[in-house]
Amino acid sequence: MGKLFGTDGVRGLANRELTPMLAFKLGRAVGVKLINNSVQSKPKVVIGKDTRISCGMLEAALTAGFCSVGVDVVSLGVIPTPGVAYLTRVNDFAGGVVISASHNPASDNGIKFFGSNGYKLPDQVENEIEAVLFADDNSFPQPIGAEVGSVSYWPEGKSNYAHYLKTSIDNDFSGLKIVLDCANGATSQLAPQLFKELGAEVILVAAEPNGVNINLDCGSTHLDLLSQQVVDHGAHLGLAFDGDGDRVLAVDHLGSLIDGDQILLMLANYFKENERLKNNILVVTVMSNLGLHQAAKKLTIDILETKVGDRYVLEEMQKSDAIIGGEQSGHIILLNYNTTGDGMLTGLQLISLLVAKGSSLKEEAAIMERLPQVLVNVPVKDKRNLNNNDEINRVIDEVSTVLKDRGRLLVRPSGTEPLVRVMAEGPNEQELQQLVGKVAEAIKTSI
To answer: I want to staple 88 with a disulfide (CB 3.0 to 4.6 A). Which of 43, 96, 216, 281 is the partner?
Structure first.
């Protein structure tokens, strides 16, 4: 059996790789783990999902798996991933589940699990689940009568989560005009409601999900639409979420991108100014711009660096007792408030900062200068072959030598897709494009 769990749960092409049968078996296997570890006679899990057409199919199968071994299921309907994490940890749930493929196309889907503490499951537990998953059917509990798991619906859970987000700030957004790009995903209902209740004038784009338009030319991976709308409407700023709402990127009033690195540094510096930056630490990944490191040094903020992936950021935050960390992609974790990346929470904190300082996003983002960065995604059949290829390694060494101390090259397989990501950073964008192209061509030719 190959490894099912990637860096963010189980992902795949819905109904081909991630099938209803696999979802059923996942529910059953996770249910057995919950029963074995719970003091409750019937553990209860909460399930949320994004707007993909395949979510209903997978939720039904997953729910059947849970119920078949005696676990009760509470369905939240469409809700951002961080909402499930929050509701899991503050209520009497043995675990939480999200059905989503985040920023990926509508044809993909995924299933990720949270423990009762609201954190994603550690590797060891995922390995144990995989060991149980394909066991003989007769080895699973088969309760009958009242011991079979029940299904209930809790739409009010979304309101509870939204109310919690409002309590995370102590000012309102009256007088601000904000454009929200909801990626036709999980924030499409909650985000506009939340920002309007805080007094902002809200202009919506990509907030009409139909099951197949999630992340389609919109959201945090496609900012052109948001930038144009901010300029056309004369808005103060815009926010773009991804499909499951755990990421956010921004644009200023001129339509210019404000990425996750800039948001992280703005928030970390604001926390530092208000004596809230615990241990003076900001956790980032190896993909973070060199400009962030240079600016953090001037601000005397300590940077800790991890591998790419929010789970690695979170692990380092817990290890170093940090309260803020994240990725350039806009996946930002604020541990004082939630246990995972939360796009709406981050957006609220960012705008609250602007209101408190009486400043614009453009002015605050000038805290760091982004160095040119070129990223190319190379589709491959088997990304596991990357590190064992002499020709690819030769070209990587050659390009790294060219850059020397002026910049850097990073080549890594994606944790969620059949891609190899090639990124170079330095003072000259044209040179970077040539160098990245050279490495990308070597990968295409070799694997």
So the answer is: 96
Among candidates 42, 140, 135, 55, which has minimal Cα distance to 95?
A: 42
Residues 371/427, Cβ–Cβ less than 8 Å = yes
pLDDT at 40 over 80: no
**188 three-state secondary structure:** coil
> How far is Cα 219 from Cα 243, in angstroms, rounded to an integer?
7
Q: What is the pLDDT of residues 220-272, one digit of tens each?
A: 999 999 999 999 999 999 999 999 999 999 999 999 999 999 999 999 999 99
The partner residues of 59 in beta bridges, in order of sequence, read none
Which of the given ranges, 122-131, 169-178, 423-432, has the highest pLDDT on average? Answer: 169-178
Q: What pLDDT was estimated at residue 405? A: 76
Q: What confidence score (pLDDT) does residue 381 get?
A: 84
Spatial distance between the Cα atoms of 218 and 241, rounded to a whole number of angstroms:
9
How many Å from the N-terminal Cα to the C-terminal Cα in the chain?
A: 23
Catalytic residues: 102
Instruction: Assign 277 to helix, strand or coil.
Output: coil
Q: In the structure encoding, which two tokens stand for residue 255, read together?
A: 């339509």
Per the CB < 8 A criterion, the answer to whether 239 and 347 are in contact is yes
The Cα–Cα gap between 311 and 309 comes to 5
* pTM of the predicted model as reported, rounded to 2 decimal places: 0.89
| DSSP designation for 372 | P
Question: Cα separation of 5 and 123, whole Å?
Answer: 9
Strand pairing report for 44-49 and 95-99: parallel
Residue-wise pLDDT for 316-345, tens only, equals: 999 999 999 999 999 999 999 999 999 999
> Given this model, what pLDDT does residue 1 score?
38
**Contact at 8 Å (CB) between 168 and 345?**
yes
Contact present, 258 and 285 (Cβ < 8 Å): no
Beta bridge partners of 409: 424
Q: Is 168 helix (H, G, I), strand (E, B) or coil?
A: coil
By CB atoms closer than 10 A (0-12, 13-18, 19+), residue 39 is exposed
| E strand intervals along 286-405 | 302-306, 324-326, 332-334, 373-379
Q: In what order do the strands lie in the sheet with 408-413?
A: 373-379, 419-425, 408-413
